[in-house]
Design brief:
The protein is of the alpha+beta class. It is built from 19 helices and 6 strands. The protein has helices at about 10-15, 60-75, 80-90, 95-105, 125, 135-145, 150-170, 180-190, 210-215, 220-230, 235-240, 270-275, 300-310, 315-330, 335-340, 350-360, 360-375, 375-395, 410-420; strands at about 20-25, 25-30, 35-45, 45-55, 250-255, 265-270. Strand 3 and strand 4 (about 45-55) form a beta hairpin. Helix 6 (about 135-145) crosses helix 8 and helix 15 packs across helix 17. It is elongated. The chain starts with 7 loop residues before the first helix and ends in a 7-residue tail after the last helix.
């Protein structure tokens, strides 16, 4: 095949929109917008294909020919030059990029959304810029040693997820020299840590109506109220989107990809919950414009409120508070209570389990009605009392100048009476 049909002057001046042949598979492609790029056409395994070699004039004619010649060597060896180039690029890939690639590839089965990446905050600041095939056991030991004992569950989670990423990378290319033994070796070197599993601190259910009174109307506290009344998982609330709710805001359908069980879940919404939602919007139901990450309400903010206000609970512990309330008030049986908090306990064959889940929506709505009435009972009592006082004051149309010396009361005295203050008539 003839080579070297083009020259520099032609490449610079040509404007005709077409592929201009240089020979041996190299063409200068002129696009409709005037841009130009080099393309190498070749046949591999009896299949015609092509690969880009860069844009002109960033890649000149001489360099394009050299790139074509290099690719041609691989073709003669029955190696696809495009795949070989991708392998070469991959071998220099940084850990942070491979972590993101793994997440994007596996996102549908990871259940937690981008929360799955959270443990990597302890890894990527130190190792993120390092080529993944250059990571060693000593790198991991230096990275994890400061938190191995103090934050063992988090460190172990990060180590295990890093191992998933390394195994994924090694599987992409047999010739990619990645040491998949670095994680088990680092674990062995760091040693086992005795970790006492502690249950989340849970508030006694009798105190919850008082806690409800301590919450304000901010987006953060409104989201917390929504969480308390629905007793779903925290991430279900913080990442809730408006298109998951029906038109009348009576049913919330959480998609499978946001469920720990990987199964869709329907949440009945009682009137107290609907009053929190207000007017329907778009996107996130509870966006946080002050959050540093992701733009969603942070569970840590809720827990900070509990600590600063003296409430002996965590946000997750409030789900246990609900379970205690169900059991001690005999509102429902254990099976229904577990279903309300998204736990699957129904036994039997698949048909029986499916029937139980679908048939319990009405029963769960009844339980959640009683729960919401209890949680908001003190707040409702305050509203009722204030309404009665206002009505009492308005009903007593007394002259303002009358006072204790006369037979009538001043408005101030009536308001004191409505609040429960005692008059001294002596």
């Amino acid at each position: 095949m003839a080579r070297y049909k083009l020259n520099d002057a032609f490449c610079k001046a040509v404007a005709e929109v077409k592929d201009h042949q240089d020979g041996a598979g190299l063409v200068l492609r002129v696009n409709a917008g005037g841009s130009k790029q080099w393309v190498y056409r070749y046949q591999i395994n009896k299949r015609r294909t092509s690969m880009g070699l860069g844009s002109y004039p960033a890649v000149g004619l001489k360099q394009a020919r050299q790139l074509r010649d290099n690719a041609e060597v691989h073709v003669k060896q029955k190696i696809d030059p495009r795949q070989e180039r991708e392998r070469q690029l991959r071998r220099g890939a940084k850990l942070k990029d491979v972590v993101e690639e793994y997440f994007v590839t596996k996102e549908d089965v990871l259940k937690l959304g981008r929360q799955w990446l959270s443990p990597f905050q302890h890894v990527l600041p130190k190792l993120g810029e390092k080529p993944v095939d250059a990571i060693t056991k000593d790198d991991l030991i230096r990275t994890f040693e400061p938190i191995w004992k103090s934050k063992y569950p988090t460190a172990l989670r990060a180590m295990n997820r890093l191992n998933q990423v390394l195994m994924y990378a090694a599987g992409q290319d047999d010739e990619w020299d990645i040491d998949t033994t670095v994680v088990p070796k680092a674990k062995a070197r760091l040693g086992q840590v005795k970790h006492d599993v502690k249950n989340h601190q849970a508030l006694p259910w009798q105190e919850l109506p008082e806690l409800w009174l301590s919450l304000d109307q901010s987006t953060t506290h409104t989201a917390l109220k929504f969480y308390i009344l629905t007793v779903v998982r925290v991430s279900n609330v913080t990442y809730a989107e408006w298109d998951e709710f029906d038109k009348k805001l009576t049913l919330w359908s959480i998609p499978a990809e946001r469920m720990k069980t990987s199964k869709p879940f329907q949440v009945p919404l009682v009137w107290q919950v609907r009053s929190l939602l207000g007017k329907r919007g778009k996107g996130l139901v509870f966006p946080s414009y002050s959050a540093r990450k992701r733009g969603v309400v942070s569970e840590n903010t809720w827990n900070k409120h509990f600590r600063s206000s003296g409430w002996a609970t965590t946000s997750h512990g409030l789900r246990s508070t609900f379970r205690d309330w169900c059991a001690e008030t005999k509102t429902c049986d254990d099976k229904l209570a577990e279903l309300c908090i998204q736990h699957e306990t129904a036994k039997g064959n698949k048909v029986a389990r499916a029937y139980y889940r679908s048939d319990m929506l009405g029963a769960r709505r009844e339980v959640m009605n009683k729960w919401a009435d209890f949680v908001t009972s003190k707040a409702q009592a305050v509203l009722d009392t204030n309404a009665r006082r206002a009505q009492s004051v308005e009903a007593l149309d007394l002259p303002i100048e009358a006072g204790q010396r006369g037979n009538a009361r001043t408005r101030r005295e009536v308001e004191e009476w409505a609040r429960g203050d005692v008059f001294d008539d002596t």
